[in-house]
Amino acid sequence: MDFDLTEEQSILKASIDRLLTDKYGFEDRKRHMAAPEGWSAQMWASYAEMGLMALPFAEADGGLAAPLSKR
Length: 71
What we know:
This protein is mainly alpha-helical. The chain has one domain. 49% of the residues lie in helices and 0% in strands. It is built from three helices and no strands. The longest helix is centred in the first third of the chain and has 17 residues, at 7-23. It starts with 6 loop residues before the first helix and ends in a 22-residue tail after the last helix.
């Protein structure tokens, strides 16, 4: 079984890694977890801007139909 990432997966991983490193470090996560909401609306907005919410859905359903697994 091949566990190497595809080029698209590598690009997505790098983008997410960069976002988390730049805007949602460990102390930020702890602060948000301790808040009444328990999560960051700003980060979820960033995830949505990146299109992460649409990744698993078919294009016909408004998603990106991203190939997250190798065929």
